[in-house]
Every structure is written in C-alpha cells, then in structure tokens.
TrEMBL record:
Compartments where located: Cell membrane
Cellular component annotations (GO), alphabetically ordered: plasma membrane
Pfam families per UniProt: ExbD
Coiled coil: none
UniProt keywords, alphabetically: Cell membrane, Membrane, Protein transport, Transmembrane, Transmembrane helix, Transport
UniProt protein name: Biopolymer transport protein
Protein transport found in the keyword field: yes
PANTHER family tied to this protein: EXBD MEMBRANE COMPONENT OF PMF-DRIVEN MACROMOLECULE IMPORT SYSTEM
Major location (coarse): membrane
GO biological process terms on file: protein transport
GO molecular function ontology, one term from the record: transmembrane transporter activity
Topology term for the membrane: Single-pass membrane protein; Single-pass type II membrane protein
Protein family membership: Belongs to the ExbD/TolR family.
Length: 129
C-alpha cells in the first residue's frame, strides 16, 4: 500500500493594483494641470476700461484686434465670420472683445453688419479698474 502525501494547494498570487492606481492618478493630475481650460485668444486684446463690474456671460466671443482684424474661434476675416454668424441659431449671445485702441468708428461700422447677420444680443467686454 502506498500513501501519497497531499501537498497543500497553492493559491495564485493576487495582483496588486495599488501601483497601477498610483500611476493613473499621477497621470490624471499631470493632464489636469497642463491642460488649457479655455482656448488661447487669437491675438492680444486690451479691452477698454469700465466703471462697472458686471460679468460678461457666456456665448460666442468675437475678437477685434487693435488693427481692426476679426477672429471668431478658428475663423479669420469679416466675410467668413459673418457667414458663420448667419448660420447660428437666432437669439444667441455674441460677446464682442475689442481692443481699447480700436477706433469707435470701426466698432460702429461693425454693429450693423452683425445685426444683418442675425445677431440680436451683443455684449461689449471691458476691463474693470
């Protein structure tokens, strides 16, 4: 008669997920810290001064440089921007962020064109000092 000694069954080693969770957490923190929250402005704009401290609100932002150049998201130039604004839903708010050095005549000439493109709600951004 032969007796076989039974060996205790070995359990497979458990996977340790803590290092992987640490790496994923560090990557998450890295990407959150380096990501841009808002897209960069197409050109530097110094808004005119204001006496009120009212928030601008949310909406599409139209930039006007000191030279009078227009930019809306990735669009440049008056014709393309006005065509894009015509395709927007009516009643949406447009935020006009113009440089302080832009002549008032330039803004005044732009406003009827924006109205013809269907813009009914317009806000002018200014800095509060």
């Amino acid at each position: 008669m032969t007796f076989e000694l039974s060996r205790p069954k070995r359990r497979a080693p458990r996977e340790n997920f803590v290092p992987m969770i640490n790496v994923v957490f560090l990557l998450l923190i890295f990407f959150l810290m380096t990501a841009q929250v808002a897209p960069p402005e197409p050109f530097e704009v110094t808004p005119p001064d204001s006496a009120q401290d009212t928030p601008a609100g949310t909406g599409t932002t139209l930039f006007v440089s000191a030279k009078g150049d227009l930019a809306l998201n990735a669009l440049r130039g008056e014709a393309g921007i006005l065509a894009h604004l015509q395709s927007q839903e009516p009643g949406s708010e447009l935020i006009l962020r113009a440089d302080a050095r832009v002549a008032g005549e330039t803004i005044a000439a732009l406003m009827p064109k924006l109205a013809a493109a269907g813009v009914t709600r317009l806000k002018l951004i200014s800095s509060h000092r």
